[in-house]
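name: query_chain
kind: protein
chains: 1
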Amino acid sequence: MKSLSRRDFLRRTSALSLLGSGAPLALTLAGIGNAAAAGAGDYKALICVYLTGGNDSYNTVLATDTDSWSAYSYERSRDADGIGLRPVGTPANKGASQPFADQLGGVLAISPKRPEGRTFALHPSMSGVRDLFASGRLAVVSNVGPMIQPITKADYLNGIAPRPAHLFSHNDQRSTWQSLAVEGSTSGWGGRLVERFLSGNTTSMFSSISTAGSAVWVNGQQLKPYQMAPSGVITIGGGAGGTLYGSTVAQQKLLDVMTRSRATQLMAQDHTTMAARSTEAATSLSGLFPVAAMAPWGTPGVVAPAVDPLLQYVDPDTGLPAANRLALELQTVARMISARGALGMTRQVFFVSLEGFDTHSGQARTHASLVAQLSHAFSYLDSTLNAMGVAQNVTAFTASDFGRSFTSNGDGTDHGWGGHQFVLGGAVRGGDIYGRFPVYSTADTNGVFGSDDQLANGVMLPQVSVDQYGATLAQWFGVSATDALGLFPNLHNFTQRNLGFMA
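structure:
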């Protein structure tokens, strides 16, 4: 381990003191050691891109070999306005009214390095992701879901293997993905991960950041995340130059009232603490957080994000440019990363989200728009990070409540379990699919699917656990294989504890 000078030791223990007296000794010592090992010039960031509602993986990454496509088409194209997509090479018919898949054209072929005798494609709206995959900057991790231990279809049907609590429930599975525990958990694996490196961050407040409101993934055991607006810093008063109604005096009076409350009620005290923390954060970022309308984050001179072409995607439904909120959130993340040196950051985790994936109905148009936004946002992020010179240091990955059913309920899908995820970054071993891709089948007259990878309604039985997925990212972040076992409670039940998609 790299030796610590007295000055470094004091700085790092001072940073840890911001956790409070409740910080566990093991966490403190682990943080000091990991920070020392990281080195002064080292920086890494993880960005969790959460697809809220449960992304339909069957229409996001598709197997297109003959047997797979036959089963897919049979189950998803029974209805005239069904959700089944068109084969590779099908020209787009913009004049078609129904089904919407005809307007989109065929799925986009991709060529993984290890196809294992099968062929694959992406949703027609994901040309950006296709190009990132082809360039080796993005990987697919197939059929990921919360698991306690490896489970077979026979085990599941016979009830002889433990399974996560409250499967198919939005709130519980969202919490399980983010915290590895059911709803009510107060800390997530992202927050717990960055806590181990907190002593290497001069400004610990900015170690964990959400641009999408409250999210358990960024909560640590002691560390509380800093919440930002999608477009940037939240300021009290909000006037230009730190004013309220044009007055700096009025602004200061407001801050005094909000941050110096003498109330004894717990809620009032908590509000005072949050107001003081927000003010401190805004002050710390003053002059360090770059304006949006400046390269490489935005188009110079374009002040309104909604009309910045860099933050607009093409809506597949209208064919017109539209504002992409996910790209806006990632712009804010990139601007924060640009301030890492001035803030003294060596490790950071970020949480952003894209909502609307609970597609029980109207899926064809809704899902096309959502994955188009995801694809554009990933392209924007990759381009921006490369321009900043930090692409090797930042990894973004997707997560979602669950996958969805293979069967259609007419114009939508129902809740599932396993699903495919994307990982983006310069350190990603891209251009490949990790994990065994599920085999598709059709249902018999009793509704039973023949594939060992599909449960009722064709729901994917996951083959990769969230613990394995997270542990692979955590080890790239700097956690040892041994320490990963402490972060991910079910990891010890799996033989493969690093999936290999990170260099």
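note: Residues 1-40 have pLDDT under 50 and may be disordered.
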